[in-house]
Amino acid sequence: MRLRVAVLGGGSWGTTVASLACHNAPVTLWARRPELADEINTHHSNERYLPGVEIPASVRATSSIDEAVRDADVVVMGVPSHGFRATLEEVGKSIRAWVPIVSLAKGLEQDSHLRMTQVIADVLPGHKTAALTGPNLAREIMGGYAAASVLAMEDEQMGIELQRVFRRGLFRVYTNRDVVGCELGGAFKNVIAIACGMGDAMGVGDNTRAAVITRGLAELTHLGVALGGEAATFSGLAGLGDLLATCISPQSRNRHVGEQLGKGRSIDEIIEEMSMVAEGVKTSRVVIELADRHGIDMPIAREVYGVIHEGAPAEGAYRGLTRREAGAEHEPG
After folding, report:
1. pLDDT tens by residue, 246-258
2. Residue-by-residue DSSP string for 28-81
3. Residue 103 belongs to what H/E stretch?
4. N or C end: fewer C-beta atoms under 10 angstroms in the chain?
């Protein structure tokens, strides 16, 4: 019997993952707004988040968490980090024992600094956890372009079973037991993407962009290893791969935030007009708090934090980066 999958979250990535999984298993997609669930069921579209894209007719949507979860064999959490815990608490009222929970969110909880699989373990202990992460731009995947992702799970055999749920055609899914590194890579890279966006808006050039990406990778790797991730993970799909896609793609929400900051707009103004969440905005604060706690020098992340949370001008942030003395390449900073 095929596994029954519940995907919670009707945004662009949640809808995309539901569209992939429906070829391998019966899928129910939970959307918070009843009108979105009706649109998906009636018109097979999600015009707010994926305009012009056809959603497979086999994806069934509902605005009831209980209806989505109660018979599910796998629950996929496609909600942003700031709403993750509250949604999980609702899931806990309906989920059956031992059903694995997969996180799609690329962020960290603000006050606790927990990764999303840690939040799952905190709210719903006893359920196996996993994270699906990598360089996955929703519109490209829905358009049929080749892409690759990582299913990070400590339980290797269950990871292989879940791998079969998500892979589809040109969408390849690899497994990785380093859940810590995969989740941190997905969260930290959003901050570096904001830095790249600021630079692009100011016309700093390809050499500068390459330097920011590679030095940004060094920063997130040093902090990620200090927090328990494996160094090799940050050079793979969940680290470098995701970092590249998020830093260079016009579809990247975090790069967009950086571009708008580079044009002199305020963060409040930018967030106000966005229909989707840019996780890097809130993650920038968590990254700096973690870096300070572990004594890791992260100049790029710190400049992004200054622009977002302290009102520093984006132009000044880039000048600050170029004034720094360079040390050994494989050292932090």
Report:
1. 999 999 999 999 9
2. EEE-SSHHHHHHHHHHS-BTTTBTTPPPPTTEEEES-HHHHHTT-SEEEE-S-H
3. strand 101-103
4. N
Residues 209-239: tens digit of each pLDDT:
999 999 999 999 999 999 999 999 999 999 9
Domains of the chain: 5-177 (3.40.50.720), 180-323 (1.10.1040.10)
CB-neighbour burial class of residue 273 (10 A; exposed 0-12, middle 13-18, buried 19+): exposed
Amino acid at 4: R
Rounded Cα–Cα distance for residues 218 and 238 (Å): 14
Token pair 């509902």 in the structure block, residue: 62
Q: Are 300 and 212 in contact (CB under 8 A)?
A: yes
The predicted model scores a pTM of: 0.93
Question: Of 90, 67, 58, which Cα lies nearest the Cα of 77?
Answer: 90
Say how many Å lie between the first and final Cα of the chain, rounded: 52
With contact defined as beta carbons under 8 Å apart, do 100 and 127 qualify?
yes
Question: How far are the Cα atoms of 26, 210, 262, 327 from residue 204, in angstroms, in the given order?
Answer: 48, 11, 11, 22
Catalytic residues: 189
Which residues on neighbouring strands pair with residue 7, listed in sequence order? 29, 76
